[in-house]
Design brief:
With 211 residues, this protein is mainly alpha-helical. It is 39% helix and 0% strand.
Length: 211
């Protein structure tokens, strides 16, 4: 009797499993209460078979060709990450009109992202260079003639793409902050004091660019 009961229970379990999940090729099968697992709300960057307004079930629409998101116009950088692009940056890239002075924001960002290698005063005595003996800077310090005479556009290009051992800083520095860092680097290259900066750190990016 117990064998028959066990056989009946096993058959019932197999039947439930067979009807609860049937997979045929690309068919994901049947699911119990699927709305417990999948949100019906349209969320950014999600896809759903029920969303039919856009291709591939995309929740977000692709931007109209040739348009730029509000507040992102300065993110466009046309020069390529090549030697030719680096050379062209010397004459084709310049700071926006609103970034015409050195402020404490530039010093602040420099000390976060640049000083670990180049040091607080640009003498290449940061902790990274001290610990990694295989890293050799291309110049002794920012006061070398190379950095003194290096066009600001090329420094901006390097911050955007990286060069040699230095990687790109585009993911951590907005374009306006890259220019602030450039201005601060030029201050150090001229032997200026790290304290000779404006103290205002509350000026917004839009206000700075609107000057």
């Amino acid at each position: 009797m117990s064998k028959k009961l066990n056989l009946a229970v096993a058959s019932l379990v197999l039947a439930v499993l067979g009807t609860g999940c049937v997979s045929r090729g690309n068919d994901p099968g049947w699911e119990y209460a699927p709305d417990m697992y999948y949100s019906k709300g349209y969320e950014p960057y999600n896809q759903g078979d029920s969303f039919t307004l856009n291709p591939h079930g995309m929740s977000m629409r692709t931007p109209v060709e040739g348009t730029v998101a509000v507040g992102k116009s300065d993110f466009h950088y046309s020069l390529p990450n090549t030697g030719e692009g680096y050379e062209a940056a010397a004459t084709q890239v310049s700071a926006p009109a609103g970034i015409d002075q050195i402020d404490s924001r530039g010093k602040y960002m420099y000390e976060i992202y640049c000083s670990p290698c180049h040091g607080n005063t640009g003498n290449n005595d940061g902790g990274v260079f001290k610990k990694v003996s295989t890293l050799k800077p291309a110049w002794k310090g920012y006061t070398d003639d190379y950095i003194k005479n290096l066009p600001e556009g090329q420094i901006y290009h390097v911050l955007t793409y990286g060069k040699n051992n230095m990687g790109s800083h585009a993911s951590v520095l907005k374009p306006v902050d890259r220019w602030r860092v450039v201005k601060y680097v030029k201050l150090l290259s001229q032997g200026g004091s790290s304290n000779a900066v404006a103290s205002n750190t509350t000026t917004s990016d839009s206000a700075a660019l609107a000057k």
